[in-house]
Design goal:
13 helices, single chain, 8 strands, 53% helix
Length: 351
């Protein structure tokens, strides 16, 4: 057994119903006295109680999907003008992503308070979009210093978003099985993450206010992100980042649609990963376990449903081929990638 594994330094606080007090404690522990609170107007009701407990000098509400560079630039100027010395983000992956964009340049610490299952809060990966191109990178400056998980903040998350966001987290687990730096520790974390998500998501889908179901799903999403941060971005995420940036597709739904096609593509050439994923689902086959979960959740099925044009398949092929890691389990060609994208675009059944 020969590998090198790096565990990222981060405090994680589970505090159901107590996020205002928990965030205040994290801000104080980090020595923050001038907080830039990043939360979109959609998250205002969730952010208000937190704002009352911390020394806010600026509330920043301009949050845009995929973090366009011009939006990041405005947030960066706002942070400088306000003299912020710490960032608190309350929201989903786009909100965390904007905080990361500010931290990338300023080095300011982040306290992340997730309101979806995006997982960005547990990684040192940043992403910015310019025009139709989404660029991602890795930098320890963007890793939030603290994460506060409060299940109460997710009880109002719409059912469709819960499903898409949870399957996005599941995609982190699956990609972590064969990412470019995947190791046995990543695979163990990812396997437990899949088990937790497969347990929590149906419970939340049935009852959106189930704190136990939400906590199980948050736990799975966190493990997924930790594994993904170590293993690196694999075929699935490279496809989704290209498509999301090129066609402005919704992040979570794109991941939810593409995941079963990538799993079916790679599993035959990744027997250990296939076994681990199947065991986590309690299924004989990995793809069958995922299919059963998607059926229960009524998961998103086709990229065309979210605005991807059919001629976009040919347009995306080159950038996707360039982005996919060389050590992907199944060799990728223009021919088999075309078939995969066509199937995901149309939502075709997987054999």
């Amino acid at each position: 057994m020969k590998f090198t594994h790096q565990t990222l330094p981060q405090r994680v606080v589970f505090a159901a119903g107590d996020s205002p007090v928990a965030v205040a404690a994290e801000v104080e522990a980090l020595g923050g006295s001038n907080v830039m609170l990043i939360a979109s107007d959609r998250e205002k009701e969730l952010a208000d109680p937190i704002a009352k407990e911390i020394p806010v000098v600026l509330r920043h509400e301009e949050v845009v999907m995929h973090v366009p560079v011009e939006v990041a630039a405005r947030a960066l100027r706002a942070a400088a003008d306000a003299g912020a010395d710490i960032l608190v983000s309350v929201g989903g992956g786009s909100t965390t992503g904007l905080a990361k964009a500010v931290a990338l340049t300023t080095g300011l610490p982040i306290v992340a308070v997730p309101t979806t299952y995006a997982g960005s809060e547990a990684t040192n990966v940043w992403g910015l979009t310019e025009g139709e191109t989404k660029t991602t990178g890795v930098d320890d400056k963007v890793l939030p210093a603290s994460v506060v998980y409060d299940a109460a903040l997710l009880t109002t998350l719409p059912g469709e978003m819960t499903v898409a966001s949870g399957l996005n987290a599941l995609a982190h687990c699956v990609d972590s099985m064969w990412g470019p730096r995947a190791d046995p520790i990543d695979r163990a974390l990812a396997q437990e993450g899949i088990r937790a998500l497969a347990t929590g998501l149906p419970a939340v889908a049935e009852n959106s206010t189930s704190v136990e179901g939400i906590e199980q799903t948050l736990y799975g999403a966190y493990l997924a992100a930790v594994a993904f941060a170590s293993a690196g971005s694999g075929m699935h995420h490279k496809i989704c980042h290209v498509l999301g940036g090129m066609f402005n597709l919704p992040h979570a739904q794109t991941h939810a649609v593409v995941l079963p096609y990538v799993l079916a593509f790679n599993a035959p050439h990744a027997p250990e990963a296939e076994t681990r994923i199947a065991q986590a689902f309690g299924s004989r086959k990995a793809s069958a376990g995922l299919a059963a979960l998607r059926e229960v959740l009524d998961a998103p099925r086709a990229l065309r449903d979210y605005g991807m044009p059919e001629d976009g398949i040919a347009k995306a092929l080159g950038p996707v081929m360039k982005a996919i890691p060389a050590n992907n389990p199944t060799p990728v060609t223009y021919a088999n990638l075309t078939l995969l994208l066509e199937a995901a675009w149309a939502g075709e059944p997987i054999n």
